[in-house]
Amino acid sequence: MDTIARLIITLTAAAILTTPITGLAAGGNAQLLAGTEEKRPPDSRSSVALAFENDILAVGAGDRDYTYGLNITVSGGAARSGWLNPSRVEQPLNRVLGLSFSHEPADKYSLELGVYGFTPDNITSFVPVPDDRPYASLVYAASYSEWVNPEHNSSWQTSLSLGVLGLDLVGEAQNTIHDWTDSSEANGWHNQISDGGEVTARYTLAHQKLLHLSDSVEIKQTVQGSVGYLTEASYALGFRAGKIHSNWWSFDPELTSYGEKSVVNDDRSLMSEHYFWGGVALKARGYNAFLQGQFRHSALTYGHDELNHWVAEAWIGYTLALRNGYRLSYVVRGHSSEVKSGTANRNLLWGGIIIARSF
Fold this sequence. Notes:
By secondary structure, this protein is mainly β. Helix content is 12%, strand content 41%. A 12-stranded antiparallel barrel has the order 1-2-3-4-5-6-7-8-9-10-11-12. Helix 1 packs across helix 3 (168-180). The relative contact order is 0.17. Mean pLDDT is 86; it is low at 21-32 and 34-43.
């Protein structure tokens, strides 16, 4: 069977296992800064978005590092439950951790299913390149819950991602696309981190605060921490500027990590808007399984003292939303080098396209 078809079938099967057949969107419950009109999405609506990221979508990027990502996100009531939905673990975990807001129903739910992968600069080599980054991949399902505080114009978000490192499917999909585009084959996927598969997970807690809101400009800050295959803390400033009608809390590119939480506006209102958006973030990273490996033996890994533990990230994008419920976004994102020396000591750059539909 064609590898791309297998990838689509895998994501579809995962969607069936993690999402109920029916569901209503969770109701928003928040207000904006004083002097502005409250905007709340209709409770009966949901949204779905498809995001594709690739280094070829950014001018000046090479076929290396974070090389591609593909995910589908469902928001609203349909994202709350399912047979294998991570939210079944996320919600009890929040309560065990003593997070007071988690005892109330969340204002916003999302479920994301996706894959993404990393490659070295030299993809033609069959053997590991010692001073370059290793091949790595993740197939995952992630749940997101958000609680909006109307009095303080802030929100708390938790997420739990469950996945598998090192599956052949991700490399096979890349090489299928390379065959279609007559590009060089990536020959080293058998050297990837946790080759053959290894279960992994990540839990994230984030707090967002609206700093400024006018008719055409929105600015907010985000503090985030995570434990798992990416263990880090970060501070981010982000903005939107243009014709904005959607809720400020519905748009959170500050929470993106590689291919996860790719920019999706899950405001489920049918409205016309368009705006530029961007931001910067500083991350203090303690552990990165895509470079350091996990428990299984991997052909190439980096030690803790070989990595940069401060990473600066920036992004810029544009979104067009139509009244019929469709949204189209484009983003360019990059961050500073993760490795201290060698060929792998380089900045990362990639682009993304997101197509969303509210219904």
